[in-house]
Fold each of these.
Amino acid sequence: MTLAQSGKQGPKGQRSRETILRAAASLATVDGLEGISIGNLAAQIGMSKSGLYAHFGSKEELQLATIETAEEIFNADVIEPTETIGDPLERLQALCAAFLSHVERRVFPGGCFFASVSAEFDTQPGPVRDRVTATQQQWAARVEQLIREAQAAEVLDPDEDPALLAFELDSYLLLGNTNFVLYDDTAYLHQARQAIARLLERARIDKPG
Amino acid sequence: MTLAQSGKQGPKGQRSRETILRAAASLATVDGLEGISIGNLAAQIGMSKSGLYAHFGSKEELQLATIETAEEIFNADVIEPTETIGDPLERLQALCAAFLSHVERRVFPGGCFFASVSAEFDTQPGPVRDRVTATQQQWAARVEQLIREAQAAEVLDPDEDPALLAFELDSYLLLGNTNFVLYDDTAYLHQARQAIARLLERARIDKPG
DNA sequence: GACATAAAAGCACGATCGTTCGTGCGGTGA
DNA sequence: TCACCGCACGAACGATCGTGCTTTTATGTC
């Protein structure tokens, strides 16, 4: 019986598991989630192939656990810091800024984990794809919801289509990430910031006076 | 001596090579350019592994030839039809429309070939990456150039930053492609079209009268 | 210090990877 | 008719893949 199947696990095992998954999440943004090999990952962190493998029942379980870890890292780094902001428009701006900062600081060496993995699994049905698309939709829904709140608070034009505005914002974030990684040039992150700023400016309600 | 190394090739060989490369280009947008295996590709088109391999000296040569073929397909389907249009703004609009149509018609089953492959090789140095980035830059430069021409023709606001405008347009195209493939929903292509239309409308010079 | 158990390693398996080699078929020109 | 050559084939290679089984090493409790 593998360690993964038996529910038992001590503190040592949890630490190892965490080490494995953090390395896997980083490697996945460079070599892809499928491109990672058990042996390669094991060598990376100085473990034996079988010792690493014992923590998971299969490669797919490792991939799913890796996604979960990446999501925790992403949430802690990008989403949670913005949740104390009351004003919805400010929170939206902070969210976009945090994302681009997250990419720029190379929290994951290959840029946004979910952009990377969803491009890899977009045409590969299965639990991995489902898990990734769920996270993506959650992100898009969050952006759109903040736009609706900003409209309700009368700081964004209520005639704007929230879904379209969210699409446009996400577009800038995605291409900013993609081009930054591809060309290793922060100029594209700055373009994303400019595009976001003027899009939101155009959607803002003109305050009288 | 392999067929690839000897320059000699008859009409039969060229036809086979073309068959291989077209299948490879399609498969690459689904399984990735690295995910393609020689055996898998050979089985797909009913050839032996070694028979296929003889057309190329290595897998990397196959990848590079695949990119070249994909570029030809893309140019013929997206770029060339728009080159007869004189007005730069109209040509820009036609180019964007042609791209989204190209994606929607699934000329490649996994959407835009270069979006797919550049996401895969963005962190993998080598000739393949270089070839892909070159094509990407060529596309971006084309879009930006059309914007400049439209500004010179006084149909787009000369105060607009051409690079930024090109970035925004490319953003919509990329996310439109990505989400269409990921969710198999044309709604995202429509959002891209809306975003493009209103961005260009905002950048247009208001005609007096 | 002995014992139970978690955690990692050792080793080996079948499959598949890219790659190479020798061979054979079919058409073309001497 | 015969030699030649483009083209594709089958077989096999070393390497690496994911995956198991067995054994050894740590860890922690009495």
Amino acid sequence: MPTRRARLKDVADRAGVSPTTASFVLNGRTDAIPESTRQRVLDAAAGLNYRPHAAARSLATGRTRRIGIVLNQPESFSTRDTFFSEILAGIVERSTEHDRNVLLLSAHYPDWRSLYADITGGAADGVLQISRFLHDKLTPTLLAAGFPVVCVSFQLEDERCFSVDCDNSAGGYLAARHLLDLGHRRIAVLYPGEGMSWGAERLQGVRRALADAGQNGAGPLTREWEERTLPDPEWAHHTARWVRDSDPRPTALICCDEIRARMIAECLPSTGLRVPEDVSVVSFNSTEISERCNPPMTSVGQPLPQIGRAAVDLLLARIRGTETPERVVRFPMQLHIRASCSAPRAAAVARC
Amino acid sequence: MPTRRARLKDVADRAGVSPTTASFVLNGRTDAIPESTRQRVLDAAAGLNYRPHAAARSLATGRTRRIGIVLNQPESFSTRDTFFSEILAGIVERSTEHDRNVLLLSAHYPDWRSLYADITGGAADGVLQISRFLHDKLTPTLLAAGFPVVCVSFQLEDERCFSVDCDNSAGGYLAARHLLDLGHRRIAVLYPGEGMSWGAERLQGVRRALADAGQNGAGPLTREWEERTLPDPEWAHHTARWVRDSDPRPTALICCDEIRARMIAECLPSTGLRVPEDVSVVSFNSTEISERCNPPMTSVGQPLPQIGRAAVDLLLARIRGTETPERVVRFPMQLHIRASCSAPRAAAVARC
DNA sequence: GCGGATTACTGACCCGCTTTACTAAAGCGC
DNA sequence: GCGCTTTAGTAAAGCGGGTCAGTAATCCGC
């Protein structure tokens, strides 16, 4: 016969004080409470395994001790790599260390206005947005209302929007530098359309590497994909054919998205180009998929769990209203060298 | 200048009724409220983009409209496959359809008693437990207190514990049947120690297939791994060597865990056994990792998103106190044939 | 045109906790 | 032992919404 949950009043009764005093003790208020009383209350609370009722506390304080994660779309999950789960692992860990819970808020809400009302109406104290796709109205509205939002692994242009991101430009530089060192001179870059901050940044890093290497003539061959689209096999086939038919043909490919990189690598052989013999491929993010695929793919990785942890810290600072040193916290990217890159064949080099 | 959130009182004022009436309308109580009044209230609510304050409502009703997911350990996330995220995708989708939010409850809690107090004290109305590892005290205590718990993709022996699981026995049967059809006669099964319901069930399915094929003599060669341990390379090496040194040596391997299957397959070549030429390998779960690895692995898969959705439905039924037809909802497993299996070589067959 | 039922609606309290404003008692200088 | 301060503690008012018990107005039969 499970006993009723202990309430503050029960703790107070047991300690022989009023609820007010018990509340003061448990919330660490230093209002001249003698050690003996303090101890009695703490003992009573421990004895009853007391924890404040979340809803009651929220109602009184206006704080939920919850942080939300806004999922832009179902694909955040089903994107079949571990990008999301690795960030999430960091978020959950760090949140728990701060005695916060994590609430998942779905994109399947009937409309963004009710999601908005829920978020600002006691669902969470602040939200994290993890996405490669930008949200239309929700985030700007939250920002306009002064609600704490932190973007994870991407950025919005809005001045009020804080983010944790990695140094995409340096990442692009790393990728290009690696290919240049292997002897490649004709490099193609696949990246997303305008909306994605990281696409342009990575491309810019590649350009910088080429310039530093004295390759500032033509620059890399580039091809955008449409923002907001999910990768599909047709896109992969088209792009693989584009690689084959480019003249002069690139000997190496930098693809700013891991799944797309994988799809392209799988398509290239069917156009007569082997990886890495004819075309080297570098991807980004370096999760499971890059590591286990065949051939394992050289990839520029992000420290995903750390990014998740930092995002929680930044969001909590925003919620508390603490000044934060920067609007964007940056992490370095790291190059993981695997089998998808090799030196270009002599013929290809000569042709350039 | 963002306006204050609309409260029930604001809606009531706008509609020219009392908060009580507004509450009745919005909660669908049929207490003889004429259509005209009803409409006025609904219009007012829509006009103000009203949503009830979550905490206030919870406090009054004792319901949170949240379902919790208890993460047994950080590895639930970082296990580097998409097992967890695919289930989670189904859970989040279905929860949103039911106008419920999903709360992630971490294993990093200082101790299970405070997690328990949080859960029963307004964190969620019921919890889902997704895990291959059993939890020690938390779940039994929740069950004893009559708190709704549903286990996802595994089961507890407790009579009060409801679960959504797949038909592991049939899955084991499928795996073995496939190998038998290819001509294998000497099959080894790797499975977890006692605690994991699915391990024993899958093994039992294999046994049944062998018996049906008239192979009921020796039965499969079996080897347990320790419950609750995470796969590590050392385990893989030991096990690979065990396979090589078994006499007579098995020509096929059924491994009840996907990551372990992958690790073994990666180790086998170093012991001189090729996959699938010398040893065929079948894994379970069939997520990304089985699909993309080299060679792609034949695997018995679970319909993970559907399992997640069904788990939400079952949990909500439990929360409502609705009678449910069964304590365990079962889903069929499906065999995905890939390149890790082939017919055994004649020599190996002859030796048996 | 009176009693009883029905319709339409509301006042007031409760959920459990925080917090402000307040008080009773002790301490202290003189 | 009088006033002032400090110490130790409390009563009561919310936070926003749900809900029971109740009421005023209308309807109906006769």
Amino acid sequence: MLQVNFIENNKDLVINGLGVRGFKEIDLVETIIKKDTLRRNTQSELDKLLAERNQASKVIGKLFSEGKREEAEQMKNRVTEIKAAVEKLNEALNAAKQDLQQALVQLPNIPHPSVPPGNTDADNEVFKAWEGELPNGGEAGTPHWELGKKFNLLDFDLGVKITGSGFPVFLGKGAKLERSLISFFLDEATKAGYLEVVPPLMVNSASAYGTGQLPDKEGQMYHITEDELYLIPTAEVPITNIYRDTILKESDFPIKLCGYTPCFRREAGSYGKDVRGLNRVHQFDKVEIVRFEHPEKSYAALEDMLLHVESLLDRLELPYRILRLCGGDLGFTSALTFDFEVWAGGQGRWLEVSSVSNFETFQANRLKLRYKDANGKTNLAHTLNGSALALARIVAALLENNFDGQVIRIPEVLQPYTGFDVIE
RNA sequence: GGUGAGGUGGGUGAGUGGCUGAAACCACCGGUUUGCUAAACCGGCGUACUUGGAAACAGGUACCGCGGGUUCGAAUCCCGCCCUCACCGCCA
């Protein structure tokens, strides 16, 4: 959520930014400013009345203690009058606040200046292309769902039986490969200075609101209505909320956290080839890295995160490219996002496996995550996160790219984790 | 699921209607003293909104789990809700 003050003082910048996103309801900016003016005026009127009431109440107390009953009674009448007005103003103020808030949460984050304009993923900028050859995984490309069946690593039908489509079952070496990747990613993140956490997999609505899943995007989460909890769509939600309602010291930065969790996404409305096999599922594993940074250092942190993800993919020997998302493809809460895509040779297509974003103060404003600077002033911190990495699709790419027609080779770096070097 | 206790500032914890935005202690920050550390002493130390100001700062308002009520006046009294803890039951 953007700060009202920021919107008022940077109206043109906000409107331009929304334009880069292709955001249609530009009028909302004016509406918000108007609503805030109303809120402020109401607030100030109310405060004046309350001040008068407080003053009068004190006098009444004194008059009573001095035994001046009559004078006190007179003042009481005056306060009773004020009371009626206060009640009305209070209602008006609450309405104005709610009204403003409701408009405010509809406004997405302002894109970073480097974000290219555009409407769809076709307009994303290739930030770093893949220079080498793209493997086709032998046998003119075998998709991972066939390999999974052939080597008894994955069973999608079983998942359907137990739960429904989009809930794959990993078996044998497939399960071990999954677990090995999780360990590898966590170990690498720890080495890079991220503190490992195991967060809850369900969150309350305050947390879902804090990272921007609520309001509006509740349809993407599994909702346990009986207990008013949500299954997390990403570890970003519980981990970022560790610092909800917090005031940090400047010296606390940088804060680097990582965590492995399963992720649950309803993915309502998905269909077609995009959702075959592991390409898009309702439950998948992911290691997430999350950072809380001083505003001046957040973009350096973002670069550092890119390097971290790159090193993972390099070591897994996976061909990848990095995209800078265009305005239209940018997530609601993000100011700048880089997507990582790996080449899945069996399908002959790129699969998104990581999304690394700087949210600047957008999440922090909702989270009320602040820090005190050297002058003792409180400011909003910057939050960032990235997948490092999303598991299921990595498995898909590894299987497809490393299949030579006979066996599937395990990258060297994973072998200490898997305990085997080929799947045959 | 049952029973009981409780939610006050970073922490412990006082406070049962006006002098309480809130004692005291601890932690923290600044200073004095000091060979270093420690101790002692002095001072400071919540958040949000808002008015004025370039700023420093000054004023106003709100906040003692949340919402409502009683009252001229509520941390304090009343009602509803939420949460936490303890014990029992069940249980990986």
Amino acid sequence: MAQEHDRSREPMGALGQSCRDCSLSELCLPVALDGLTVDELSAIVERDSYLERGEALYQVGDAFQAIYAVHSGALKTAELAIDGEEQIFGFHLPGELVGLDAINDKRHPCSAVALEASSVCAIPYDQLEALAAKIPGLQRQLFRIMSQEILADHEMLHSLARRRAEDRLAIMLVNLADRFGRRGWSRDRLRLPMSRGELSNYLALAPETLSRLLKRFEQQGLIAANGREIRLLDRRQLDALAGRPDHPPGGSC
Amino acid sequence: MAQEHDRSREPMGALGQSCRDCSLSELCLPVALDGLTVDELSAIVERDSYLERGEALYQVGDAFQAIYAVHSGALKTAELAIDGEEQIFGFHLPGELVGLDAINDKRHPCSAVALEASSVCAIPYDQLEALAAKIPGLQRQLFRIMSQEILADHEMLHSLARRRAEDRLAIMLVNLADRFGRRGWSRDRLRLPMSRGELSNYLALAPETLSRLLKRFEQQGLIAANGREIRLLDRRQLDALAGRPDHPPGGSC
DNA sequence: CGTAATTTTGACGCGCGTCAAAGCTTGTGG
DNA sequence: CCACAAGCTTTGACGCGCGTCAAAATTACG
């Protein structure tokens, strides 16, 4: 549960199915909950369920029963716009939570779909709420996580709305690198879990524009791209494009 | 998104200074908390503090101590971008909460400034958290409010990012009308609390573009604008532009 | 290995930002 | 109560970033 320990580059190490150290880290991480709490939390968490590429964890309008912690793989949340086009709301990497936006009206406002073979833990919301009422540390932690999501959304919101395409891509790349980095992967080498089309969709760009930008970044020596493999070669300049003077870990999106 | 109960159309009724029914309505409204809870909540809420136009409730980086419920007037939350430009994150109308994005790292990530003479109630966060631990209904309510904010942000995010200027303005107008409407004001006649510059800033438009759009909307008979007074003349068409088939209440921004 | 889907490349056009300047407010001091 | 200044808001002219359309090149997958 400690942050930033430099894990092996093996995705999940030898932890296998146990939810304790992987998927729940978002809940346990920032302020270490004590062992008893973690045990109680583990007790209500349902065993991993597996999703194939393209399989939905839930659909728009489904009744809200649980929030989910991504264990391995990656998900996208999306809805269909009026014109029938998919609109991607966010990507969810291992260790992150999905479904927080459904608490209010007890229905999922978007679908969650696996980008690749993935596994997730379900945390039944009723029980989580009850447990949070019993354990102040957990309640606090939940408030923090939600606050963090609100903040990250605000930042993404304004990045997307008023930065140029170039900046948005830089923001996205360092954001992903940081989020993978937080889970123990390399901070300057990443494998994108989403297609170019999905990425451009999320960034509100035409796929063509994204393609051209990646090429330009490569020509400028900022990155090296090979399919979904991306290496960040000039982190300082990318950070500058992304509008951060130094590089504190970014928010989630 | 709160749900559509039809209150009296008088702005604040005769409630005067009492925080009980006005500023805290966001906390009490959707699922009525019982009387005892509301009393306990009222007990920890600090008396209204008044802000003049342009006065800051808090600044970027200030220590987080309380969340605030807008009682009257209106606030904007904003930060200064790298280039020195102000970037407006959101507007906060009577009955809405400000400061939820500061829970996570105990510092305000943006400033909150009064758009006009305003009054707010401070709700000390430590005490709120303690009370929420004691009263499950309140905890649940807080989770709901935060979830709602996350959802509303997601919606605004994608509105701003991938809709045309025209659509964004329509979205904003119906959004504001709904939010005022929820507080008992007219749903087709509103007085903007923010300047054109602030509105265009929030919508990520040039002020000139906003001006031209308003003119066009007027020529098309969608609205009647006179300074900050706006009348929505063709709600159906505005909803269509905003991308809603019918008009469910919009999110907050 | 063939077919479909994805990604890349090029040509072109439009929406919206930018610059400049003219109204139009709002506030302050004489 | 008017004069002048310092905003705001509007209007017009112009250019560029990025979307759109079309087609080639590459990759993914049965």
